[in-house]
């Protein structure tokens, strides 16, 4: 697993320092004197900046709250896992035998961390102006549209897949209340799975409120599994 040419082709980037790509692909379970956690930390910060600037330019009429929601929908474990799969990153990661047995190459947490680390490594070696088009190209290839409705729909779909597999049921969304004048209404929706509530969220439409609360439930379920 020392031929990175396929990965570099997907990224449209060639690493000058091969040690850097090795570090970015090394999970802590692999038991080397180094792993990708520091590069992951760097990548997270840089990707927040790149995506923030991209959204600022793309949505000139959106306010700070809306921009923050869209960025939060992209810059997270689910979003980075999607991008990692786009470049088949799981095939290149160094993990322990135990993680291999536990299907570590397909785990969202491992894929997401490795993606951040790879982006951090490119930034470290070549800077922001080189990394920016690589990240934005991946983003636009992975999403047909980038807006609140489309991004949040991924959460509802992902949640339903998990609840059907793990609980044998689908989530139930309840409208708790709505308030405000007709032109500026807000809706508050709760989510229930097998009779248990997993949170509450607000949105400018019922649909957006449902998507927002689906993300909360998804994060809660993933948190319990760790």
From TrEMBL:
Record-listed Mg(2+) binding positions: 40, 113, 116
Any one GO BP annotation for this protein: mRNA processing
Cited Gene3D superfamilies: 3.30.160.20, Ribonuclease III domain (1.10.1520.10)
SUPFAM superfamilies reported in the protein's UniProt record: dsRNA-binding domain-like, RNase III domain-like
Source organism superkingdom: Bacteria
Keyword Cytoplasm tagged: yes
GO cellular component: cytoplasm
Enzyme active site: 44, 116
Catalysis performed (reactions): Endonucleolytic cleavage to 5'-phosphomonoester
Listed GO MF terms: double-stranded RNA binding; metal ion binding; ribonuclease III activity; rRNA binding
Record-stated family: Belongs to the ribonuclease III family.
NCBIfam families hit by this protein: RNaseIII
Role: Digests double-stranded RNA. Involved in the processing of primary rRNA transcript to yield the immediate precursors to the large and small rRNAs (23S and 16S). Processes some mRNAs, and tRNAs when they are encoded in the rRNA operon. Processes pre-crRNA and tracrRNA of type II CRISPR loci if present in the organism.
Protein name: Ribonuclease 3
Organism this protein belongs to: Candidatus Marinarcus aquaticus
């Amino acid at each position: 697993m020392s031929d990175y040419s396929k990965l570099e082709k997907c990224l449209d980037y060639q690493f000058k320092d091969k040690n850097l790509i090795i570090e970015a692909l090394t999970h802590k379970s692999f038991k080397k004197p180094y792993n990708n956690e520091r590069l992951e930390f760097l990548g997270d910060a840089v990707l927040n900046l790149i995506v923030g600037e991209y959204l600022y330019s793309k949505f000139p009429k959106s306010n700070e709250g809306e921009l923050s929601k869209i960025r939060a929908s992209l810059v997270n474990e689910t979003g980075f896992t999607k991008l990692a799969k786009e470049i088949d990153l799981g095939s290149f990661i160094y993990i322990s035998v135990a993680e291999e047995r536990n299907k570590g190459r397909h785990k969202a947490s491992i894929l997401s961390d490795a993606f951040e680390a790879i982006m951090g490594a490119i930034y470290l070696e070549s800077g922001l102006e080189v990394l920016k088009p690589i990240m934005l190209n991946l983003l636009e290839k992975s999403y047909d549209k980038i807006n609140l409705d489309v991004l949040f729909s991924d959460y509802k779909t992902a949640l339903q897949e998990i609840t059907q597999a793990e609980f044998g049921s689908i989530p139930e969304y309840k409208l708790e209340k709505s308030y405000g004048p007709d032109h500026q209404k807000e809706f508050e929706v709760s989510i229930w799975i097998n009779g248990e509530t997993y949170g509450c969220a607000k949105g400018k439409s019922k649909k957006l409120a449902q998507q927002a609360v689906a993300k909360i439930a998804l994060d809660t379920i993933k948190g319990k599994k760790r």
